[in-house]
Amino acid sequence: MFVAHLTWPEAGECAATGVILLIPLGATEQHGPHLPLSTDSDIAAALCARAAAERADLLVAPAVPYGASGEHAGFPGTLSIGQAALELLVVELCRSATDTFSRIALVNGHGGNIEALRRAVALLRTESRDVRLFSPGYGGDPHAGRAETSIQLALRPDTVRAELAEPGDTRPLPELLPLLRAGGVRAVSPNGILGDPTGADAAEGDALLTLATTALLDDLGRWWPQVHEEGLRR
Asked: Would you give the distance in Å from CA 151 to the centre of its chain?
């Protein structure tokens, strides 16, 4: 299931069968006082692992833990490489990966990565590389709120400081976007939360993960339908 656990001959054998490589992309950035900096990477990696458990023709690459997180500057621990560096990293990573694997799906866990990833995919596809992008949507509050807190409770409850969960700025995202673009998250939410994580629940998080995994598998089925049908685990 995990390409990093293979030897090079084993990777070559897998590639010869037409496997699809899933690359999780996350971030190392603040998620309020109650969630770990790894939250986006944890979620992206979990989606890939869950999808690979359902399809025999999927391999999961190590997660990329750095992204474009400039909007979270000013919060200790945030490590951002910016959009230009992320775009270049993904382009070169996928160029290398397609030396072995003919199909690649990027699974994104951080909204701030999307623009750079779209540009990278567009360039790669002009080079006739079969690379696709999947970004799940969970609805509700946009950052470190109920959805992400519930998912992290389902994945890694030991990393959640539930007693520190508190509401942040709960205004709708369209209302916040101009302020976020102008001054980042710190300008609208001193605690780094956009939404309200109180009441988050592991069962709710598991249900959200199931929906996102189904959406990923559905997209894989549309992109590569024959592989999808033949690769389903019985």
From this structure: 12
